[in-house]
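Need fresh eyes. Consider my entry:
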Amino acid sequence: MTKPCDNSNTPRQQHCAGWTLSELLISLALMSVLAALALPAYQQQQRQARRGDGQAALLQLQMDQARWRSAHDSHTDTLSALGWTSDRSAQGHYQISITEATADSYTLEAAALGGQAADRDCTPLRLSWQGSATAVFSAGPDMSNDPARCWRR
């Protein structure tokens, strides 16, 4: 940076304080590098936070299935029977479905939509109920466990 403006009446050219073009370009380059490093981490954090939307929908659906089963002979395979008017999660990041329903078990799935679909390791989120009290939380291609730890809190 140059010196502040000098008010003396010298015949030389006056130099005022300010940024030179090269200083501005270096600053812009540094900000670009920082943004390029921070953006992927920010997007991953957003995807991880949005998983809570799908998890909450599946847990709500689990409670609805328990309420339904207390009055019927088997679990239902339709969302509308449980009082759901839409197949979307509360914030709209997941499409909810019941993929299997029998008298003793059911499997619920939450498939990511929109920007959340980039969360490939954790799509779909799954909740399976087996027998009288066994819940299996899984995600991705693996039907029996959660290798990417998508259900951790």
In short: Helices lie at 21-69. The radius of gyration is 28 Å. The mean pLDDT is 85.
